[in-house]
Amino acid sequence: MTLIVKPDRRAPTAVHMVWVRVGSMDEVDGTSGVAHLLEHMMFKGTPTVKAGDFSRKVAALGGRENAFTSKDYTGYLQQIPSAKLEDVMRLEADRFANNTWTDEVFAKELEVVKEERRLRTEDKPHARLHEAMDAVIYQADPYRRPIVGWMSDLESMTADDARAFYRRWYTPTNAAVIVAGDVDVDAVRVLAERYYGTLPVHALPQRKPRTEPEQTGMRRLDFKAPAEQAYVALAFKVPGLQPAGLPATAAASTDATSEDALALTVLSAVLSGYDGARLPRALTLSDKPVADEAGAYYGLTARGPQLFTLYGIPAVGKTATEVEAALRAQVALVAKDGVTEAELTRVKNRWVAGEVYKQDSVFNQARLLGVSWINGFPLGADQLLLERLRRVTAAQVQAVAAKYFGDDALTVATLLPQPVDSTRKPRVPAVGLRH
């Protein structure tokens, strides 16, 4: 089990996290959602800790706790007074190795997760559109499945499905313990050896490659749902940052795709990284706005493939087609004329400032270390990334704008608004939703 410790003595608190390198991308068809459901079940007890007692014990220590599941990973966290670190280590190691629950408890929690899906996906047209869009973008890659799972898979999910997933992936060699805050490195190592060093280990299953076939033409999805306004999203397949692109020194990388990934990060900020960025300025703040909202986002790092997404909501009297054309025109403008040094300096300064401000939060320090470990980056990757981003040139930004935004890499999804039932009452969140 990997142990990463980052002392920060500004306050007498500590964040303790366990990251498991398993997420929805590691599921198989028919059991989508099991990684997230298992996250819920990890709070349902061990032979020595009753269901629900984990959270109560952390609260009694003066702390707070939560958990999260993504396509790439599952994480568990506690923020506690640093003097209580040993107590949460003991609790977390116990449930990591000894999680157990009855079929009846599983069935009850399954209903909570199904309600979570209804509340956060099925009741939200944009969420439903993006879920359907992922299934169009990817044919073979497991990113095509939703993290919460398809409802039909949840309906047929069994307790043994979750138990098998737990036994398969929850082993120390597939996990990292990350501690940040008012702690001593040597003391944390002693505690980690005591509580995690003796946990049983088993071999991980082979992660078989599920390579996405090359896309050879634009894909389109028209999605009908009750909504007040139309919405359009354009997703382009682009490269992400790879570990080879962040070597353990600040020396320039020879990994060309990672160089492009860094330039795409800057392009995203130029288009949508601040109030006066290109997309809001051209589409929403002009004398004749095309859109009520417009933006771009790009993930940079992930275990799986990356997308660069543009999106917009048409203004009154405008269509999704017009917004789509306006979004693409702004990227084409960068490809043709490039970006100014003033823009480049502004987005770099904002990025650096944002990364520095993140360090004010002990939780964010631990989170950044966890994400880096999941993706195979070296310690100190956040600082290496800043140094690399500072060196991105205007020519590189112009080059990626010209290289990656053609039709053959594009999927367009359009929300076609349907009448909204004004008599329908908002859904009330079920007890037990954690996030």
Automatic annotation (TrEMBL):
Domain Peptidase M16 N-terminal: 9-148
Domain Peptidase M16 C-terminal as annotated: residue spans: 156-349
Top-rank taxon: Bacteria
InterPro entries: Metalloenz_LuxS/M16, MPP/UQCRC_Complex, Pept_M16_N, Pept_M16_Zn_BS, Peptidase_M16_C
Any single Pfam family the record assigns to this protein: Peptidase_M16_C
Cofactor: Zn(2+)
Family under the similarity heading: Belongs to the peptidase M16 family.
Name of this protein: Pitrilysin family protein
